[in-house]
Write a structure and sequence with these properties.
The structure is a homodimer of 767-residue chains. By secondary structure, chain A is an alpha+beta fold. Chain A is built from 31 helices and 11 strands. In chain A, strands 1, 2, 3, 5, 6 and 9 form a 6-stranded mixed beta sheet that branches. In chain A, strands 4-8-7 form a 3-stranded antiparallel beta sheet, with no helix packed on it. The longest helix of chain A has 30 residues, at 474-503. Chains A and B meet through helix 1, helix 4, helix 7, strand 6 and strand 11 of A and helix 1, helix 4, helix 7, strand 6 and strand 11 of B.
Amino acid sequence: MTDGKRKTPSPIDDPALLPYLPMLYVAWADGDLEPSEIRSICRTLTEAQDDEKQCRDLLGSWLDPDQPPSADSLQAMLGAIRTRSADLPDTDRIGLADLGVELARTGGREVSASERRALEEIEDALGIAGTEVSQLILFPARPSETAEEPGPAFDVAAMTRLLDGEYEEIRNRMRELLRQPEFRYEYGLDRAAYRERVLEWARRLAAEGIGALSYPEAQGGAGDMLSFIAAFETLATHDGSLLVKCGVQFGLFGGSILQLGTQRHHEQYLRVVGSLELPGGFAMTETGHGSNVYDLRTTARFDRGTGEFVIDTPDDAARKDYIGNAALHGKLMTVFAQLEIDGEGYGVHAFLVPVRGDDGRVLPGVRIEDCGEKLGLNGVDNGRLWFDGVRVPRENLLNRFAEVSVDGGYSSPIASPSKRFFTMLGTLVGGRVSVALGAHSAAKSALTIAVRYATRRRQFGPAGAPETVLLDYLTHQRRLLPRLATTYALDFALKHLANEYQEGSDDDRREVEALAAGLKAFSTWHTTDTIQICREACGGQGYLAVNRFAALKADTDVFSTFEGDNIVLMQLLAKGLLTGYKRQFGGMGLLRLARYVAGQTATTVAELNPVVTRNTDESHLRSRDFQLPAFRWRADHLLSTLARRLKKRLDDGMDPFEALVAVQDHAVATARAHTERVILEQFWAGIERCEDPDLAEALVGLADLFALYRIELDRGWFQEHGYLEASKAKAIRKTVNKLCCQIRPQALHLVNGFGIPDELLGAPIAT
Amino acid sequence: MTDGKRKTPSPIDDPALLPYLPMLYVAWADGDLEPSEIRSICRTLTEAQDDEKQCRDLLGSWLDPDQPPSADSLQAMLGAIRTRSADLPDTDRIGLADLGVELARTGGREVSASERRALEEIEDALGIAGTEVSQLILFPARPSETAEEPGPAFDVAAMTRLLDGEYEEIRNRMRELLRQPEFRYEYGLDRAAYRERVLEWARRLAAEGIGALSYPEAQGGAGDMLSFIAAFETLATHDGSLLVKCGVQFGLFGGSILQLGTQRHHEQYLRVVGSLELPGGFAMTETGHGSNVYDLRTTARFDRGTGEFVIDTPDDAARKDYIGNAALHGKLMTVFAQLEIDGEGYGVHAFLVPVRGDDGRVLPGVRIEDCGEKLGLNGVDNGRLWFDGVRVPRENLLNRFAEVSVDGGYSSPIASPSKRFFTMLGTLVGGRVSVALGAHSAAKSALTIAVRYATRRRQFGPAGAPETVLLDYLTHQRRLLPRLATTYALDFALKHLANEYQEGSDDDRREVEALAAGLKAFSTWHTTDTIQICREACGGQGYLAVNRFAALKADTDVFSTFEGDNIVLMQLLAKGLLTGYKRQFGGMGLLRLARYVAGQTATTVAELNPVVTRNTDESHLRSRDFQLPAFRWRADHLLSTLARRLKKRLDDGMDPFEALVAVQDHAVATARAHTERVILEQFWAGIERCEDPDLAEALVGLADLFALYRIELDRGWFQEHGYLEASKAKAIRKTVNKLCCQIRPQALHLVNGFGIPDELLGAPIAT
């Protein structure tokens, strides 16, 4: 064959040129040779070929930068190389020069020593030493993919049992229940149908006794709050709307009756709430006031004449908003309103207010509007409520913490209105614990899907080799594995929280509330971040509804907002830290801040040891002796400097509220550092309790990764404060990379350890 | 009145106790007095009252820690204080001690000097010096909210014109068009109805000539790519599905015909593509291969006998996936397939393949499946395509870069198959430019909604004062304003990119492609992050579909994946930087990496000047002389160390692909640093061109915030490399806070400067 514009025969037709064929092909096919490079090749060739004039001329003409070969000629060269090399032995790891020598041999031509030198020089000049190019030329199809994931280094079922803890039984019951075909996911349902589906599902759970788990046995429950929480956590690996519907009905609505009501309310309502015969809701939030419950504006005026409370919505900003179960199904609401007796305000109290009759019709004086389409959780019928002179009997006050007598006398076991308010709110901390755990389960689902996909999906790869499994890419490990480690770490902290919530005495109530605030914020933010990264890590597949990220993302997105806005919660925790949990803040509480702050400024923070701040040994970095003190030092230092900055402002006569606003970012950082410290401490405590050495070893790796990743993220701060020298900060980064590589082979088994059944994961890319 | 358990009369009945009434109330109502505190108050009181035995005894009984007053008594005390102080003048800034004195006076009792001292001591002991407590006691209702936003310091319309630039006219035309009632948003539409709505909308835009803007005038267009891009950018403030539907039809499908086809294709198709009479799609992605186009596996075999190409899908992994317009509306597809002639592979080429007839029926040999529900963009009918021996005439090869003759001869103006491949792909870079701009518009919408809401919504506040506007909180400013600054900064960089894309010569094509890769990744990540933060900043309101975040989030989420996965793109840019844009990498390209890398390792990075690394003056931090060199130094340093690390691995004989994987995180950081540098440079260049001093001043503040915020985010790195000393890193953090406060009063006007009509924002909370 000939090239269009060229008179000389193609090198494939001339045995003399055979040794140069691979080089020629590469020189042109690579497409980016610069003229100077081609000239250099030319020179090398022609020098070597001094005694073979004809060959040199031929080659020269094929190497003229102004006269590149045609696409067709190049293709023909490639074809000739492949044909001629087809029967050669041992070509799978051959360099270009050697390939040329072998090709020449197939044409019966021996290559001289000087020619071989020239070939090697060109190979060098092209900058393609190595065997990859010939791999590509000779084996255009990538080899088939054979690598398998390494087996588990620990007993995966044992890991699941470890994480399940004491509540293994209820978790397994939930898993079995939710695996049933009736709970199968369906996509693209319209809102009305979805809401009905969720109601059916919730009834099914109620029928199984799940809803009443935390209620007294006398009311058909099990009297076991932790069991309910464990069921809720497991439920969160299923549909988000079902989770929230159940949370509203059994947790918030039923919980408010349980915690704020007394025996008469328990007897009258809890059984039918738990069985879902009486659907209801928790009407706290108003359009104008969400996190700031103290300033709610719905009123409950006591009418001495009839012995009733009269519930009113003064204006649209005071309408109850976002109330789950309000738009369609709810019949009775726990309504939070400002109690008024004889024109005097007694603060926020909770009242049971019927909003729909048995026939489902909205009752007189009540107006209800559907909140409509939401970002997620569209299976929950959120609505808005207005009350216009709605009368409820005196007994409908949930009266555990305050009673109004027939003649309008007000009494309470808690004299201080401020303390009473926070005691009432405090009983609802279970909601925060539950949201933290619910978010956590969603993160586990997302990680399970993304890690499984990442061990199967291949894309790109070294020349001539199978494409590379996604999880073998450092960037992919970097995205998924630290989040996997954080999720494991959180598991121990959240279970600690649930236990403290259940078992804590009244004395440490505030500490539990503060811990719940911090962990709820951390967990929900972690979940939002993790699901997002997992979605991106699954590319377009992650964008399909069947692969679950759509629902996981959308449904959990509001977790950072409800049950307390995360930023508000972080400040609540910071205030708790500032006062050693001695006070609640709100109403007039803030005004005594100065005295507690002064106490905190005296906190001494451990001195830095320059030997430690410079130590870059991996064994040091991976030891608890480095990690725990680092987390503690940061938390202590942030707290004492926060107190000092606040004190300065208060001393200068700044309004306490404004002083707090001025150091708000510092307060949030303090709360976050404290929360991370608790997480690390609880993770290590959990590892110490673990008796299975294989599990413990796997967990230690995760704890190291969690700790060092968090320090890495905040290494700007640690360096600013002299805790890390630059060399150590760099060493930590490297160790994080190394840990990612070390954990990678176990990643699949670690997500499987979460124990989420395939039916609940749903995602075809992961099951 | 009397207290239940108490025999002594209430202090409200005894004039002698009136001066102590406010203290008594606060001591108990505050709810958290410790017994030691109460005892200390008791002591102070009894000491002062030595000569008034009766009064002392009475007080003592009311301060007994074991006998707190009842809730009712406390409420009565409050009532008495309020009643008695009602007619007092000047109580709005009175301290507790003074209030006591005044109350006594209303009862006709004068307070002695020693009593006054005692009162002051107690006030101090309670830690409530100041006037806030009496504010709270006397004025339980917060004052009404009167503060207004400050006016603009610049001409808002002029800012919009500045951002609109040369393409103001088409942008205004788009705004006017999209404001029409027919384009009004509707929520909760089912998928089928939504898809039809989007098709109608797209037809409407086509009828206005928007679709054909980039096509030649001869085919009914305006021959103006930048005009099309500007229209697309503006369209992105409306519905995401409409944006992507138009992007697929006019940009990708039409664009592939325009860029990869020749005159005959233009004449035959462009007019009907632009008018949407011929809906089509762009079938590149396969289930098994997205970003890795080189390894696509659909085949197009040339049948010499009939002169046709035969398109086949070898297996399910090679099915075309996620193809917009495929599930319902598309009739013709640009299909990317491996060209085979006589069993030889020629690499990926594009073919026009009909998939539906005029009647809308799927053609023989073609199988189509709907991708179903997605996370977002559900108004776009994405589908999957399988081809089974589908024959298309030879003319259906888009033959600008390669032709197959009747007898199967292959020719191309670009001899090198590698270069040809990248030239083909390179023509499609417009898609990346468009996605970067589309994401950018969505970020603007989100910021406009969130900032407007943040200037209206109030929550919490100082005691007795109106609640505080959200945007007056530091944490709120911290969340929104740096993102606002980044969005402004990006605006200039993205317009620079669009211009370079349009005007760049063939020589700097690779640089433009690399820039598009970096900015597309940066912009889409920034958008995902910004929308998320904006949603959270709007709390529950942000979760309602009508307030737009649901759609903004869901629709743009896939932007980080399509038109090139962001992580892959960042590595593309890093490779471009490593070679000074001299090479494309892919196929065998990577193999010559070593030679270019060696060149980069010689790059010298400017020496550090200790005077500069320690300078914490605000004027220095806010100067271009600090910011630009910092961005440049980081980019240069990362690049040269990346090259060095790579070279070491290559010198050690590591496979180039694996060497790159080993330093992947470094490569991504390098690409990001480079992109941020370009953004800052372009922002400053834009400010220099700005002739309106008010606008320029506003932009300078944003540039400072952008630059310092980015340095703050990466201050870990800057400290590790000795570029910032700890004191300077801290000073930067403080300056970011200060800039947030300074920009806050203009925030509303800055988002209004984006010029998004209310009808397009939609959100009731913002309009």
